[in-house]
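[Discussion] Sanity-checking designs against the backbone

I'm trying to build intuition for which residues belong where. Below is a structure token string of 347 positions. I'd appreciate it if someone posts a full sequence so I can compare it with mine line by line.
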């Protein structure tokens, strides 16, 4: 009698979901996502849409940081490139939202690859400073190139339409953005089953050994920056079409830090961790705000300190994860699954 999980074909062994339990769990998640918008109110739909956009951006950043080992603090700037490109193409050239979004992704990929050139010579803190410079350069261009971006003034984007249906209300946008989340997640998982993804991981683990094995470090580092920026640009373009207002204040260094926190808390080098981390970071401020409102009856002054509580909790959570569980929520989820797969045995 077999004791364990065994496969008789390579097809079964290479499947993304290899056991009935994994397939059932995925099916339950999909069914829950399909049912959610029919029961949720506008507030929760807005949060769900924000989570979805954050997941796409977090997956993009995780490709660069978690899978390739290249640190980046320019996430907010690259999102700004995607958002402004999509907005300007839609406003000035009358492009449909889907065409401007696609072009915005490629433009952001190009910009990301250009700023990724120093990655061949720089590592660690030095590369972080280089990407931080990218963040500041992009925002400076956005706020000072008045003739193109409008400077510090906000851009008003026309409502995205599809077959006569306005997509940027909460219910309709939910189906679009979560469909894209599924496509992005599936594409990313399969990326790391190819030689490109394996080259990224080899560079992360030991770039000198990867070079000795024949991996072109310059080529694959630039490719990692480009793919990562492509997805980040997608997140920025979706945010522009969803909010219909694009302003530089949405893409400050705080955004870059938030996305870095997402992949640290969720788990570096994990697509599932990007889901966990993005959900956690987006919902944490909303949870604290709701808790503050509930406590307002016996502590009226709490409204004035909620922003400081949010900032303090944000930093505290990052520190606790780095100390207690550096591999993030994804590792905690794995530990839970391992416990139940072995229960009631202790080994």
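Best answer:
Here's mine. Compare freely.
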């Amino acid at each position: 009698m077999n004791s364990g999980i065994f496969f008789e074909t390579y097809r079964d062994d290479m499947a993304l979901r290899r056991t009935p339990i994994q397939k059932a769990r995925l099916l339950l998640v999909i069914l829950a996502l399909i049912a959610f918008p029919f029961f949720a109110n506008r507030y929760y739909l807005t949060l769900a849409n924000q989570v979805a956009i954050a997941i796409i951006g977090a997956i993009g950043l995780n490709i660069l940081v978690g899978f390739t080992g290249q640190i980046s603090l320019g996430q907010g700037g690259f999102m700004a490139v995607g958002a402004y490109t999509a907005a300007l193409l839609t406003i000035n050239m009358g492009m449909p939202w889907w065409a401007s979004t696609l072009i915005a992704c490629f433009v952001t990929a190009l910009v990301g690859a250009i700023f990724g050139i120093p990655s061949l010579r720089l590592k660690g803190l030095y590369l972080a400073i280089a990407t931080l410079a990218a963040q500041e350069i992009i925002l400076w261009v956005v706020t000072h190139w008045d003739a193109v971006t409008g400077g510090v003034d906000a851009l008003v984007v026309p409502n995205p339409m599809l077959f006569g249906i306005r997509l940027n209300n909460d219910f309709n946008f939910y189906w679009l953005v979560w469909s894209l989340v599924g496509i992005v997640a599936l594409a990313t998982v399969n990326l790391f089953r190819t030689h490109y993804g394996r080259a990224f991981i080899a560079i992360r683990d030991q770039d000198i050994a990867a070079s000795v094995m024949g991996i072109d470090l310059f080529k694959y580092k630039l490719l990692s920056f480009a793919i990562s920026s492509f997805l980040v640009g997608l997140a920025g373009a979706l945010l522009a079409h969803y909010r219909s207002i694009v302003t530089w204040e949405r893409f400050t260094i705080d955004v870059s830090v938030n996305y870095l926190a997402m992949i640290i808390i969720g788990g570096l080098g994990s697509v599932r961790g990007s889901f966990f981390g993005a959900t956690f970071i987006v919902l944490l401020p909303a949870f604290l705000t709701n808790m503050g409102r509930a406590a307002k009856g016996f502590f009226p002054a709490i409204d004035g300190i909620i922003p400081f509580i949010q900032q303090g909790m944000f930093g505290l959570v990052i520190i606790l994860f780095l100390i207690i569980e550096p591999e993030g929520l994804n590792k905690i989820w794995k530990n839970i699954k391992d416990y139940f797969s072995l229960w009631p045995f202790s080994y």
